[in-house]
Amino acid sequence: MSKTLFEKLWDMHVVMDIDSDAALLAIDRVLMHERTGGVALESLALAGHPVLAPDRAFATMDHIVDTRPGRGDATLMPTGTAFIQATRQGARAAGIHLFDITDPRQGIVHVMSPEQGILIPGITLVCPDSHTCTQGAFGALAWGIGSSEAEHALATGTLRVQRPGTMRITVDSQLGPNVSAKDLALHILSRIGSAGARGKVLEYAGSAISALDAEGRMTLCNMATELGAFTAIIAPDQMIFDYVQGRPFAPQGADWDAALASWQSLYSDPDARFDTDLRFDAADVVPMVSWGTSPQQSLALGAPVPTAQAVAGRDTAEAHARARDYMDVTPGQPVTGLRIDGAFIGSCTNSRLSDLRRAAAILKSRHVADHVRAICVPGSSQVKAQAEAEGLDRIFLDAGFEWREAGCSMCFFAGGESFGPQERVISSTNRNFESRQGPSTRTHIASPETVAASALAGVIAAAPVRENSL
After folding, report:
1. pLDDT tens, 311-351?
2. Which backbone phi and psi does 381 adopt, to 5 degrees?
3. Structure pTM?
4. Nearest to 100, CA basis, from 113, 87, 119
5. Contact, 95 vs 51, CB < 8 A?
6. What distance in Å separates the CA atoms of residue 75 and residue 61, rounded to the nearest whole number?
7. Exposed, middle or buried: residue 326 (CB in 10 Å: 0-12, 13-18, 19+)?
8. CB 132 within 8 Å of CB 113
């Protein structure tokens, strides 16, 4: 019987069927961060339950920890230090892997995990974070959970899972020379809306997806949660296998050969059936930017803000008006040219080395506008070190960017770091909700190239055709 990739992964991990719509699945990896990890570990310890497999559980400091140089346990968040120290104490007591603040492997969980080979094809992976879908880019079944589910997974190595539906989005032909995976994600969001993949396992396929590198695939899968998806997934190929091989926690030696043989069967059969099947043409995708307070409220750079009537099938009139008022934009007005106060490159969406390289190619020998506060937060300590080895930090600093330590704080105000009230920010993050990057801050999401070009111009602006080298 033909199966989708998701169905193969599901069947590989079923411990027992609970009913026709749910099963108990074996969980191969549990990831945690200090915002929820300490809570789960403390609760588990109080209940007297040990971690079943400490070697398959990992914790990092990313959400609350400060991103400023010289950081320690102190944060701008009043209770932040307690979260950090509770996670450290709980991780050490449980014997799980901990990537602490000063560990060179520390980083945003969805950046650090593939770097270390914790993420490999064919596994189930859970984390108390909604963007865990990022890690489906390697052919893993990865999804976000709550703290109580994390406790259950840690204690039993299993989770009860309601079987999701299936959806395939095929993207054929090629993205243009100045168009990235982030633009593709925003293009799809603007077409099918934030509920377009609700409750589904979304498989991306097609020639344009195969042409993406590993980091582009992670960017695309990262944004699946903005479509309402249970998770996203892409069949692994030789490029992914090459990326994984040799990483610290990846299989080695004979185990590698066995794993590779298994991974090569991880694809949807040609005649597998999906509940929903959509197609897009990559040639239709152009550089994108959001105008409102939902990722679905995105448009092509240069296009006018739509009227409420034009998007009535997706936004209610009330939601449209609220977003318009919050962002201080009017229908018919192009977003391009709006004066910005801030520029941000970071987040689990676009903070990897390739993102920094593309932005640096635009920033080199130039300077951001005098009125713009520009910040770059590499996705992990390893990304930061690699970027510094290549001299990218010098390009960002010379251009007027702040060069920070790895973390999530500037992305969503978790650790108290923020831009100012009503400041307009162009950002490589994944969400533009009200107050996402600080109280009353107005965030426009876009690719790192668009963020870099806008920082230079002082207004939302298109990037020049990509320069291929620094």
Report:
1. 998 899 999 999 999 999 999 999 999 999 999 999 999 99
2. -65, -30
3. 0.97
4. 87
5. yes
6. 12
7. middle
8. no
